[in-house]
Amino acid sequence: QVQVAESGGGLVQAGGSLRLACAASGRTLNTYAMGWYRQAPGKEREFVAHIRWPNGNIDYADSVKGRFTMSRENVKSTVYLQMNSLKPEDTAVYYCKATGLVPGTHYWGQGTQVTVSS
Question: Cα separation of 84 and 70, whole Å?
Answer without folding.
Answer: 11
